[in-house]
Each structure stands twice: as C-alpha cells, then as structure tokens.
Description:
Blueprint: H1 4-18, H2 30-55, H3 60-83, H4 89-120, H5 125-146, H6 158-174
Amino acid sequence: MISNRRTAIxxxxxxxxxxSVLVSLFTESLTLIVLFELLSGAAVIAIAVLMFPLFKxxxxxxxLWYLAAKVIExxxxxxxxxxxxxxxxxxxxxxxxxxxxxxxxxxLASMLFYYLLYQSKLIPRFISVWGVIALISLLAGNLLExxxxxxxxxxxxxxxxxxxxxxxxxxxxxxxxxxxxKTIVD
Length: 186
C-alpha cells in the first residue's frame, strides 16, 4: 500500500497531468494532441483509483459513484483521443459529442470529489468550497452557452475551476493530506 504522503504527491502530479489535454490550445500536432488526451484520461482514472481507499471510510456509496463517474470521464477522454485519429467525419462528429458530454461527467465527478474532500477534511475546507463554487459557475457557463448566450463574461466562469485544481495539486504536492482518524496511515 502507498503511504498517504506519497498518494498526495502522486494525486497532485496527476491533477496537473490531467490538464495536459489543453496542449491542443498550443499545437496542431495530431500526435501530441492524441497523446495528451490519452494521458489526461488515464490520469483522471488514476486519481479516482488512488483516492478510493481514502474516501471509502467516509462514504462508501458516494465513493463508488465518484469512482464510476471518473472512470466514465477518463474513458470518454481516451475514446475522444482515439477518435481524433480517424478521418471519418461521422466518427469525428461523435468525438465532438463526447467533448460536450465529457464536461458534464467532469462536473458530476468533481462535485462528488469535492464533497468527499470536504467531508473527510483531507484538505483545507476552503479549497473544497471553492471547488464546488467553481463547478457551479462552470455548469452555469455551459448552460448559458447552450441557451445561446455568448456574452464574453461567461468565459470568466471557466478559469475558476482550473485555478482551484492547480492550487489543490500544489497543496497536495507540498503539504499532503491533513491527518484524520478515519484515513489509512501506513
């Protein structure tokens, strides 16, 4: 079993690795984009697997839902990356649908993640609360865009969760998890 300190560092690094999907903003290299989408999907799943034993003592049912949602989210990222290799327009259309639905799996799974972090007190609660607020703003921004609202202020909703997760990753790498009586300590 991995120690809680090492788990925290690995989870922090994996959170940052999951954002490697944003490489598509900086390159048009199909190989790099596919590679980083696969890496991101694998990182998302690995985070959930590593967090499972830490969350399970707090709420087994929600922890199972969290794990399932993250596996679906990460799996969608992997499938989207692989579909990018296709030249078939129908498959590329499916990839676009996956990207739209992926956002909602991200929001659902992350809400469960931050709820479990809040409940377990593994990190300072302000990070969990910020995460929930950021996810609500992300959901609101997505729904407003679907409704046809194109106001430039909507784009300000998205960085909130990114900044929160970068802070969370740095916190985990530098400080680790808060000790708790219910967590498994090796």
